[in-house]
Every structure is written in structure tokens, then in C-alpha cells.
Amino acid sequence: MTDQTLDASGLKCPMPVLRTRRILENMSVGDTLTLIADDMTSITDVPAFCRMAGHHLRHVDDRDGQFIFTIEKDGQDPTDRETESQRIAIES
Q: Looking at the whole model, is its pTM more than 0.90?
């Protein structure tokens, strides 16, 4: 597994998420990206991106307005998860 860090301090929406997506595309499943951002919209944008893209947001820390996100890359398409959840609900 590989750990990488992206310092997006000073970047405004949507750049922290766009750069995060680009880096995660080149990482392997299970790798971890630490994102550092100070844009206030990151606190909602990054978790939303992780949900939509199917990655695991492992940890968020707020250090005096500097947000540190720990994201684990997942290879499963989030639409597959929804389909699997729906299948389980139907079978129950």
C-alpha cells in the first residue's frame, strides 16, 4: 500500500476535490491519501465526493481552520454498492 499527501492549502472550490480525484485515479485500491485543505467548502465537498466516488473517508481533523482528510481508495463503483444493498433488501 502507498500513502500520499496532497497539500491543497490556498486552493478554492472545486480545486481541492478535482486534484484529489486526479490523484486517487492513479492510486491502487487500499492506498491512502491525506488531503490538507483550508477552503471552508472542503468540509462538505470532500465527504460528498468520497460518497459519490465510492472511497472511504477514514478521518477528518480540523486544526485551526486547516482540514485534514484521510481517504482510502476503494475500487468498487458506488452504484454497485447501491445495487447490492437493494438486492439484499429485496431478498430479506
A: no
